[in-house]
Design goal:
The chain is α/β, with parallel strands linked by helices. It has one domain: Rossmann fold (3-Layer(aba) Sandwich), CATH 3.40.50. The protein has eight helices and ten strands. The strands form two sheets. The protein has an eight-stranded mixed sheet with strand order 1-2-4-3-7-8-9-10, with helices on both faces. A two-stranded antiparallel ribbon has the order 5-6. The protein starts with about 25 loop residues before the first strand and ends in a 9-residue tail after the last helix.
Length: about 290
């Protein structure tokens, strides 16, 4: 069976020597109210130190987790707090807020079915963003906001930016679990329904899967006056079908005239690869962000 949930982490996590007074703050078990879902959205949060001067704002990046994971994974398995501290201290990236929400195994799509996980795509782009902008000095505008994610979350980040281009200026996909639309008599029928479980109905509804698929949704970017920028990265020892799918998706985005970058570097579908990839991705992102836009 094809398995795409987050792989076991390498024993050697990245470590960073940052002065204590320069360290940001990581908070877990936070909740954002969500009228769309009818329940709170759990999230973890990184806040840089110190707070910005009066009148200034932080850019904010939303980072999505993989299948079988949760929002706090970026800070536990991913060791993201110290990595951000060091990158900010070194001047490689600007101080920024990072929000890591939990979405279950939703694939970050709207699922109104009884017993489903609800309208996750809509709730993240509306309720979660509003809660963060209300509670923190973040740049409450498109130009100050980006979304990213790994594996399932990589696909989710691309969907968030494509479905809500007025909300995010850019999207970053790390080892994105991208699967092309189903075809008649598709041999993937043997494993795709198990991968997506009840996200697209029970039994699996290929038409629903195709309608929400990033490959079907991407051409809509072509007509946008303000297009999100896209950054895709994947390891050269990742699953071969994911490497191929990311390359094909990159080429599809190129046809929309969007700003798009694809980077294939050393690494597997593991946390050590994503730890190494996050700062270069944020360095790419930084010029796209404008925290003065609020």
């Amino acid at each position: 069976m094809r398995i795409l949930f987050m792989a076991a982490v390498s024993a050697a996590l990245l470590t960073c020597a940052v002065p204590a007074n320069a360290a940001g703050i990581v908070e877990y078990n936070l909740e954002a109210p969500s009228p769309v879902l009818g329940r709170p959205i759990p999230y973890a949060l990184y806040k840089p130190f110190p707070f910005p001067p009066e009148g200034e704002r932080w850019p904010v990046v939303y980072l999505l987790h993989g299948l079988g994971g949760a929002g706090g994974d970026w800070f536990t398995w991913g060791n993201l707090g110290p990595i951000l501290d060091q990158a900010i201290a070194d001047g490689r990236i600007p101080p920024m807020v990072v929000v890591a929400p939990s979405a279950g195994d939703s694939w970050y799509v709207d699922n109104p079915d009884p017993g489903g996980l609800g309208l996750i795509d809509t709730a993240f782009a509306t309720d979660l963003v509003a809660a963060i902008d209300t509670s923190l000095p973040t740049a409450a505008c498109r130009q100050g906001r980006a979304v990213g994610g790994l594996s399932m979350g990589g696909a989710g980040a691309l969907l968030q930016a494509i479905n809500h281009p007025q909300t995010y200026v850019a999207a970053m996909s790390f080892s994105g679990a991208l699967h092309r639309p189903m075809q008649p008599n598709d041999p993937r029928q043997q494993w795709i329904p198990d991968l997506y479980k009840n996200v697209f109905g029970a039994p699996f509804d290929a038409a629903r899967f195709n309608a929400a698929n990033v490959f079907k949704r991407a051409p809509s970017v072509r007509a946008l006056k303000e297009k999100p920028a896209f950054y895709l990265t994947i390891g050269d020892r990742d699953y071969p079908d994911l490497i191929e799918a990311n390359a094909v998706f990159h080429n599809l985005l190129v046809t929309t005239k969007a700003d798009v970058s694809l980077r294939i570097g050393p690494g597997h579908h593991y946390w050590d690869t994503w730890q190494q990839a996050i700062v270069p991705a944020l360095e790419w992102l930084a010029p796209h962000l404008d925290a003065s836009c609020s």
